[in-house]
Design brief:
Blueprint: E1 12-16, H1 20-26, H2 31-52, E2 57-64, H3 72-95, E3 98-103, H4 111-123, E4 130-138, H5 140-156, H6 167-171, E5 184-187, E6 206-209, H7 219-231
Parallel strand pairs: 1-2, 1-5, 2-4, 3-4, 5-6
The protein binds farnesyl diphosphate.
Farnesyl diphosphate binds near residues 85 and 134.
Length: about 240
């Protein structure tokens, strides 16, 4: 393993898994096959985090609210893959003591997908070794708007005073309120965009972009990103 300082691991790592389509093009395969290959990297990233014993949360951007604009075939391949992944991997994830959380809007998802997602969360609910937070039908602005709507409803019902709306109260209305802030945000395939991912939670995150296309992502890439993170000095707005 590289020279990682195991006493200074990021508590929360979030990954924008990018480059499945380009990887497929490069190998003369379909986009669906690119995503399928990307699922192997999902396994590698979970194992790598779990092994480090100190990373508390791994968040993965699996399907954004903008991804509905892709072809019907690709959307259905992505959801098919998600269900397949849950059926194949959930027991392993459970045995590893990993708790699964799903972050995103439930509206718009099929009954079948919803029941798979709910099963993943209830099956692993008591696990405490690590949290795997999967963003599905997720948009950062939608999450913020949804939290604002909840606050407004509570205020209108007389359950909350406007003076009590502060950052903490707001954070408690996010999709997965117990998540700590993101420490390290990784994006693969060399792009530098946030793409509407966890806008509230990444306020002070260190961003590391890697050239590797997501289907080629392996443990060593996660270690490289953590090493780069550990070389940075985090100041949180201070000096
Ligand atoms: C981005 O590549 C990737 C996605 C939109 C989907 C990520 C999904 C997976 C890796 C599938 C499995 C996920 C789980 C959690 C089991 P892209 O298609 O935007 O690539 P491109 O920019 O090269 O076209």
């Amino acid at each position: 393993m590289r020279e990682l300082d195991l006493t200074r691991l990021p508590r929360h790592i979030a990954i924008i898994m990018d480059g499945n389509g380009r990887w497929a093009d490069k190998h003369g395969l379909t986009r669906a096959e690119g995503h399928e290959a990307g699922a192997k990297s999902v396994r590698a990233s979970i194992e790598a985090c779990r092994e480090l014993q100190g990373v508390e949360v791994l968040s993965l951007y699996a399907f954004s609210t903008e991804n509905w604009r892709r072809s019907e075939a690709e959307v259905s391949a992505l959801f098919g893959l998600l269900s397949k992944y849950i059926h194949l991997e959930l027991e392993n994830i459970h045995k590893e003591g990993i708790r699964v959380r799903i972050m995103g809007r439930r509206e718009g998802l099929s009954e079948r997908v919803l029941s798979d997602l709910e099963y993943s969360e209830t099956r692993t609910r008591d696990n405490r070794q690590m949290t795997l937070n999967v963003a599905i039908n997720y948009g950062g602005r939608a999450e913020i708007a949804d939290a604002a709507r909840r606050l407004a409803r509570e205020a209108a019902a007389g359950a909350l005073r406007a003076e009590d709306v502060d950052e903490e109260a707001f954070a408690r209305r996010l999709y997965v309120p117990e998540l700590p802030d993101v420490d390290l945000l990784i994006r693969t395939s060399g792009e530098m965009r946030l793409s509407n991912f966890m806008l509230w939670q990444v306020s002070y995150a260190e961003i590391v972009t890697l050239g590797v296309l997501w289907p080629d992502f392996r443990k060593r890439h996660l270690h490289e990103a953590i090493e780069r993170y550990q070389k940075r000095q985090r100041r949180f707005g201070g000096r």
